[in-house]
Structures are given as structure tokens and as C-alpha cells.
Design a protein that fits this description.
heterodimer; A: 176 residues; 5 helices; B: mainly alpha; Helicase, Ruva Protein, domain 3
Chain lengths: 176, 156
């Protein structure tokens, strides 16, 4: 008889747990359907040298990090010093920038002022490549393996924790 | 007089050439109508409670541009939706697909309803059984008689 009165209490506790977990979910983090799929092809002008282009296939055979950034993006400014420090500590990490819907002078100015962690950046002026990669909130970061498959996506500004505990081990694992 | 006339002619001509044609609301009304129809079923990823049609977000504008392009290429609604889900996942669909993941979402309410109906049914049955009159045994009737006051109001 006593146990019956405990049933509503148990349901209440279960709901509290569910709602508490729900509180800490970020609705802006939408799982990408592109994980473990080939990275969409692109062939874009390089930021520093408009006469040159870079395509996704040029990166075959190496593990690379694809970071979407823009000079107009506030959160990019937040994550930028982290990338600069990280690229200095790990020069073996090949970070390619996707300069998303930006103006060349603004972008160049931004890199000059804040430092350039990128091996090179390519310009996605009309945002089409961004759409192909499922970009919806700059900054975003992808890890792409030697076969050109997207292995990881991070949405929003990067943190040193994510870099150290997720991206770096993954890149090292994939580079083997 | 001649000069004035020439001036007048030139003036009218210049004003005619200067006047801009009113820009059409949409370049192609048919495309726009389909965009409205398909876009209502699609979620904007930036402001997640708005449709692709309503949203003023930059990304929504870009996506509308892509969808217009797909419409002009003669793609079906299904092809347009899969173009977006390939990039952004099922999240862009306001009407989620029936898959193993969304099974609970689609049929959960019916499950709840069935559960509630079962609960109510059981409750009613139990109550009815409790209310059922069972005939008293002779012993019980005798006991009742002995407990109840008799016609004279005196207890036996």
C-alpha cells in the first residue's frame, strides 16, 4: 500500500531529471548530416592571392581543419586568439579558413590585426560553399580526413577544451 | 517659338527616359508562389521558429536564392527538401519524416491516449465490481437484524 504513494513521486523525480537535462541542451546545436560523408567539393579563390584557387580535392591525402570565419562575425573575434595560439603550438595542424561572405580588404585587415592561424584562406563571397557545408552560424569548424571525409563538426566558437580534448586527438588519430 | 517647342519635346523625352519602371514584386511570380509553398514547410536555421519564407536572416535570404534557383531548374518539392536536408539535416523540415527516430514523436500521443483509455477502463471496471451487490448470507442478515433497532425503537 505504501509503495503506491511513491509512484507519483517517482514520476515527478523522473520528469525533473528529464527537464533538467533538457535545460542544458543547446537548441542551436543541430547535428550535421555531413558527418562521415565526403566533404562537399569547392574551388575557391584564395584570400591572399586572388590569382590562385584551392579546391577540396587539393587537400586529399592530408588531415585538415576547415574553419569558417568572417570579419563581420563577433564570435569569430572571440575564438580567433585561440586558433592563433593553437596554430603556433601545433604548426603541424593544417588549418584552412573559409572566409564566409566577407569583403577581401576587411578580411585581410582582420588577419593583419589579429594574426593569421590559417595555412591559407579561401573566399566564399556568395555563401554557396557555406550552404553546401551546412553552415548556419559562423564560426564553425570541420575536421576532414585524408580521404576527404568530414569526421567532426563544431558549431560556434571553439574553446581550448574542445581543441585539446576532441580536435587534437582526432587529428592525431586520423594522421596515423 | 520653335526653340521653345524643341525644349518642350526634349523635356518630355528626358523625363520619359529618366522614369524608372516599377520593379516587379518578384521576378517570376510562378517561382515566387512555389517558393512560398515549399518555404512554409522549411525552418530557418538561424531563427528557429520562423519559416524560410518569413525569416529576414541573411542565411534565409541565401537559402531562398538557392531554392529559387532549384525551382527554376524544375526540381520537385521533394528534391528541394532533400537538397536542404542533405546539408542541414531533418531539422529544417517542419513536418518531420516518419523514421525510427521520430516514431515516438508521431505515434507517442496515440500511445498516451491508448494508455489513458486503458487506465480509465480498468478504473471503471474495478469500481463497478466494488459496487456490485452480493446477496447477504443468512448469518449476515441475522446479525444486521440484531444490530438494527426494532420497530419499537428499542434495541434487542
Amino acid at each position: 500500500m505504501k509503495a503506491r504513494f511513491l509512484i507519483p513521486f517517482a514520476i515527478f523525480i523522473a520528469l525533473v531529471i528529464v527537464f533538467f537535462k533538457g535545460l542544458h541542451l543547446d537548441p542551436h546545436e543541430i547535428p550535421s548530416p555531413l558527418i562521415n560523408k565526403p566533404a562537399p567539393a569547392f574551388n575557391l579563390q584564395q584570400l591572399h592571392d586572388p590569382s590562385k584557387t584551392l579546391s577540396a580535392t587539393d587537400m586529399r591525402g592530408q588531415v585538415w581543419v576547415f574553419n569558417v570565419w568572417a570579419s563581420w562575425c563577433v564570435s569569430c573575434r572571440e575564438e580567433h586568439p585561440i586558433w592563433v595560439a593553437f596554430s603556433q603550438a601545433h604548426p603541424e595542424l593544417r588549418i584552412i579558413g573559409l572566409n564566409y561572405k566577407d569583403q577581401r580588404p576587411d578580411a585581410l585587415n582582420w588577419l593583419q590585426q589579429l594574426g593569421n592561424p590559417y595555412v591559407l584562406s579561401v573566399m566564399d563571397s556568395d555563401g554557396r560553399v557555406g550552404i553546401d557545408y551546412g553552415v548556419y552560424g559562423v564560426p564553425e569548424t570541420y575536421v576532414i580526413d585524408k580521404q576527404g571525409v568530414i569526421r567532426m563538426k563544431h558549431i560556434g566558437p571553439i574553446t581550448p577544451e574542445v581543441l585539446q580534448s576532441k580536435i587534437l586527438p582526432l587529428v592525431q588519430e586520423l594522421s596515423k | 517659338m520653335k526653340r521653345a517647342l524643341l525644349g518642350l519635346v526634349l523635356l518630355t523625352l528626358s523625363s520619359a527616359s529618366l522614369a524608372k519602371e516599377a520593379p516587379p514584386i518578384a521576378q517570376d511570380p510562378a517561382v515566387e508562389a512555389r517558393l512560398l509553398k515549399v518555404g512554409k514547410e522549411l525552418r530557418c536555421l538561424v531563427c528557429q521558429n520562423e519559416t524560410l519564407v518569413d525569416s529576414h536572416a541573411d542565411l534565409a535570404q541565401d537559402l531562398r536564392r538557392e531554392v529559387r534557383e532549384l525551382i527554376r531548374q524544375g526540381k520537385t518539392d521533394e528534391e528541394i527538401k532533400s537538397y536542404l536536408t542533405q546539408r542541414y539535416g531533418d531539422f529544417v523540415l517542419y513536418r518531420p519524416r516518419v523514421t525510427t527516430v521520430t516514431w515516438l514523436l508521431w505515434f507517442g500521443p496515440f500511445l498516451l491516449l491508448a494508455g489513458a483509455a486503458l487506465g480509465v477502463g480498468l478504473f471503471i471496471r474495478r469500481r463497478r465490481r466494488a459496487l456490485d451487490e452480493t446477496p447477504l448470507t443468512a448469518e449476515e442478515s441475522a446479525r444486521i437484524k440484531s444490530l438494527l433497532p426494532n420497530d419499537q425503537g428499542k434495541q434487542v
